[in-house]
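Case study 2.
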Amino acid sequence: MAKDMRASFARELRNRGFTDFQIRVLAATMAIPPGRTATYGEIAKLAGSPRASRAVGTALKRNPFPVSIPCHRVVRKDGIGEYSNGGPGAKLRLLIKEKAIKKD
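Prediction:
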């Protein structure tokens, strides 16, 4: 993401009441390519707070741009996890469609 675009993105999120940590979480989540996933712990580490995996979930629950910020690609280390845009079933369908996980 270009520097001016990152600044605009961060400004928009700050105006919506997001903290710097939450903004870093959303930026790290935007970097997950289709067909890939990252755990809440991995995103916490990328956001600069490796022990804050639960706070990552809180930030993602507030995601105002679910199409641009693919929070469905963030998963638990032991499973899918929650998804505020339709529940775990919707998250699973999106991950299967993107070939991030295989259908059983």
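The first strand starts at residue 38 and ends at 39.
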